[in-house]
Design goal:
This protein has helices at about 255-260, 285-290, 300, 330, 400; strands spanning about 5-15, 35-40, 45-50, 55-60, 65-70, 75, 90-95, 100-105, 110-115, 130-135, 140-145, 155-165, 170-175, 180-185, 185-190, 210, 225-235, 255, 295, 305-315, 340-350, 355-360, 375, 375-385. A hairpin with a 2-residue loop joins strand 10 and strand 11. Helix content is about 5%, strand content about 35%. Strands 1, 2, 3, 4, 9, 12, 15, 16, 17, 18, 21 and 24 form a twelve-stranded mixed β-sheet that branches. Strands 5-8-13-10-11 form a five-stranded antiparallel β-sheet, with no helix packed on it. GO terms for molecular function: ATP binding; protein serine/threonine kinase activity; transmembrane receptor protein tyrosine kinase activity.
Length: about 400
């Protein structure tokens, strides 16, 4: 594997007042209204309104239907779709040849979510899906196979891409060769605020530019980069469904059982009403700030321990985290006021496929009367490298690797 360096931004979300994890469907207008929201149900026609709160448009007969080489793609139901049961995982477009979707959208940064269901499809051998996905000049997935994915059978990959003025967002699916095939079950495109994850110079206050860990300057995440969402965690609570997000249909995964290595307590307050005086109210949904992990009331024990999370990540990255004076009350000036901090860390490829990223929060023992650490949420994104890649390089089909 080629030795290369990439960058990863890590977003930490704090609220110094507490917390709760009972979630209900929001009936009020969400804090953010997306200019563009396209949810394309591939391989089918007509509209669908599943419980996820999105209006899925069938691609057949829509203006988003793809162009392709040789016009040899097919539509197919997932043969195990009875076990899936939800749009957009029940149908797919598949082809042994390249095909491209084109989306006319407004200028600005977008979420691009690709939905996959690993299953048998009529006329296609399940183990032969091996393909690359590109968005303009960016390689989002390189020689990718859902059969080898560590995800569940139904999953999505989320990316952030900026679209320039008068530019059409194109997504191209390219099989490894004509012996293999590419497929897609669903495509979602959602506009986002210009300063949510990007920190384009001239568009954001310096205080919100991510800290570049172990480096002197801060790091601007420019529109010339693409991002891949690796983790988005509700640290102290359970799964937050996309319809419960702030209008961008982000999913926040439960983190306590799967990723928390250390002990901790889970303070909760169902009456907490976050005061959005420091950050926009669309940054994260209220339930993120209504649940957290802290170390607990035993200050003697806290002085001798950490809050630690372990996150499995691709190599090509070296995750390093440091914030030696994280004082949430000092940052916000009051209780119940949400805040977030961004960090960019340099990652080195050392020849392994994956590695555990350890995130440690440790209380300062020499200052103040409260010896504790707190975290409400974490987001981890991968930044595209100078070659515009987000994928691991030099992957080959399993049959050729033997």
């Amino acid at each position: 594997m080629k030795n290369h360096s990439l960058l990863t931004p890590i977003f930490f979300i704090f609220c110094p007042g507490f917390i709760f994890c009972h979630f209900t469907v929001a009936t009020s207008t969400p804090p953010y209204k997306a200019v563009d929201h396209i949810a394309l149900n591939c391989g089918t026609s007509g509209n669908s309104n599943p419980p996820d709160g999105r209006n899925w448009t069938g691609e057949i007969g829509s203006k988003y239907g793809p162009t392709e080489q040789n016009n040899k793609s097919i539509f197919s139901d997932a043969q195990s779709h009875s076990s899936v049961g939800t749009v957009p995982y029940t149908t797919a477009r598949l082809s042994h040849f390249q095909f491209t979707y084109a989306f006319p959208v407004a200028a600005g940064p977008k979420f691009v979510r690709l939905y996959f269901h690993s299953a048998s499809y009529s006329g296609y051998e399940k183990s032969k899906d091996f393909f690359t996905v590109k968005a303009g000049s960016f390689t989002l997935l390189g020689n990718f196979s859902t059969s080898d994915s560590t995800e569940s059978k139904s999953f999505f990959k989320e990316f952030c891409i900026n679209v320039e003025e008068n530019q059409i967002l194109k997504l191209t699916f390219i099989p490894f060769s004509s012996d293999y095939y590419a497929f897609i079950n669903g495509i979602e495109i959602v506009s986002m605020p210009i300063d949510l994850y990007y920190s384009q110079k001239g568009f954001i206050k310096y205080e919100w530019v991510p800290e570049y860990v172990a480096q002197a300057p801060r790091f601007y995440i420019n529109y010339s980069m693409a991002l891949e969402m690796v983790y988005r965690l509700n640290v102290g609570g359970s799964l937050i469904q996309p319809k419960e997000d702030t209008g961008m249909f982000r999913e926040w995964s439960e983190a306590i059982k799967k990723y928390l290595w250390s002990g901790g307590t889970i303070p909760r307050d169902p009456s907490l009403n976050p005061k959005y005086s420091k950050i926009p109210n669309y940054t994260a949904p209220d339930p993120i700030y209504q649940s957290a992990i802290t170390m607990g009331p035993n200050m003697t024990k806290n002085m001798q321990s950490n809050l630690t999370w372990g996150l499995r990540v691709d190599t090509g990255f070296k995750y390093l985290l440091a914030e030696d004076r994280a004082d949430v009350i000092l940052w916000t000036g009051s209780n119940d006021t949400p805040y977030y901090k961004d960090y960019v860390v340099m990652i080195q490829n050392k020849g392994e496929d994956t590695r555990q990223l350890s995130i440690d929060l440790q209380p300062r023992t020499s200052e103040g009367t409260l010896i504790d650490a707190i975290l409400n949420g974490v987001e981890v994104f991968k930044l595209s490298n100078p070659d515009s890649h987000l994928a691991r390089l030099h992957m080959v089909p399993p049959q050729l690797a033997q």
